[in-house]
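INFO batch 0412 | record 1 of 1 | parsing
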Amino acid sequence: MRGLDIQSRDLRPEVHIMSRHLISTGSPFEKTAGFSRAVIDGDFAFVAGTTGYDYATMTMPEDITDQTRNCFRTIEAALRDGGFAMADIVRATYYITDAGDADAVFTVCGERLGDIRPAATLLVVAGLLKPEMKVEIEVTAKRRTA
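INFO prediction complete | emitting tokens
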């Protein structure tokens, strides 16, 4: 029985093994629910749905604008910990519980992503995990090459 010559360089593509790196904010939700704030896999960063908690104080502001700003602070820190920048974001999904909050959320999104302009979707949902949560944001980033 003839097989392929596995020694042939023409038949063996280069294999690059990248390790998976998990990023945590220290939120108790991450351990309880079994998820990471972000997963870095090669040139991609996948940031989980992030709500407006201030993880230093574990408090949630009442105001939707402040919650949205906290979302982006947490996202930026997770990306930075993984070696990414906000400018690497290629996809964003926004979940809000009140369509009337869309303009306030979009204002903050414009402040943080206006020059980056990732592909984005906004969804109005019946509710998030806790009633005080008004917005949740998840992003995907791809490391830019020189």
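INFO post-check: The chain has one domain: 20-142.
INFO record closed
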